[in-house]
Task: structure prediction
Amino acid sequence: MIIYLAGLQSIPTDLYEAADIDGANWWQKITKVTIPNLMPFVLIVSIMSSIAAMKVFEEIYIMTGGGPLHSSETLVFYIYTEAFDRLNMGYASAAGVILFLLTLILSAINIKTMGKDNTA
Amino acid sequence: MAVVNGIEVRERKYISVSPKLLPEEPTLMNFVKVMDTFPFWRYLFNSVVVAFLTVFLNVLFCSLAAYPLARMKFKGRNTIFILVLTTMMIPFQLLMIPVYIISLNLGLQNTYLGMVLPHVTTAFGVFLMRQAFITVPNELDESARMDGANSFQIWYRILMPLVKPSMVTLMIFTFVSAWGDFLWPLIIVNDQDMFTLPLGLNMLQGTFTSDWRLIAAGAIISMIPIIVFFLFLQKFFIKGAMSGAIKG
Result:
């Protein structure tokens, strides 16, 4: 939410004024100005959500316990069960490293898009 | 939804058939009952101890670590700072296994220390405090040094009072995360007397039946401290603490 707000505020008002002068209605303003300018923020938010989704643990632990037949397991829940139910610490650590690599790749993409200057 | 369930009198037969907007027979009995059902005060006490210890140590260590990174000139300072920031990318779920093994070897199972220590310094906190210290003008440090203050005195007499807004931000963040933490206490604690509130609430859920009204009531009660803490610290959010420190 906050990221989207920052994104909306970062769109220069000149663009809207220019659209007004060109006779754009509100729908055209949204589709032709707001959404294209918001795209980088959409990407950032989706990446952050993906990282957060991989780390979901509590909801699953409480609600389904990973069941039925491991269909609702996330990576973190899998690490937890491997490490603290079956006590395969080494195996779970390896899974943890894989989780880290996945988040690292996503973070790298995230930083790349953040670094770009997206002023139209 | 939670509020509706928390003040409902009769247990509904099928909770999922038609969620209601308003409770049929409102009551506050569930809040009383939840205190009797499980050692609520004990868990509340545990939660408070863990949360406050975490907050206090976090502010102390993060600001102490941030001070040299923001103020002192030494070789490799920026490298160290970047390394600290890099640790933000490592998820705690990866660290929890080695941290658990270390805690076991140190005998920290079922202790407050074991629950607090892993969260005692965060890269985020160091980063936040460093940014706050950088905004404080250097002239203040210099004038304090002229008056014969040493580094430690500068830190707690000049810098800490001036970065109160950031400090309060860090405190709120830390408190909320420590209060709601479920994963780490679950791992490190297996003695029921040391449970924090989230763990206790999880226990209310039975294997075959769960009294959702009690769980909802307990959840609402466990939210109250966060709100109180937040409101209490709100008044320190006053900006403009810097004004009057330097003329011109």
